[in-house]
Amino acid sequence: MITYGDLRDSGKNFGKGFLAALQFLTIIPLRRVFSEREIGHSLVYFPVVGLGIGGLLYGLDCLFILFLPLPLGSALLIVALVLISGANHLDGFIDTCDGMAAGRSTEQRLDIMHDSHAGSFGVVGVCCLFLLKYVSLLFLPGSYRMAALLLMPVLSRWAMVYALSAYPAARNEGLGKTYKGQAKWWRLAIATLIAIAVSVGLMKLSGLALMAAIWLIVLILAGFLKRRLGGLTGDSYGAINEMTEVSALILVPLIAGGYF
Question: Which domain does 64 fall in, by range?
Answer without folding.
Answer: 4-256
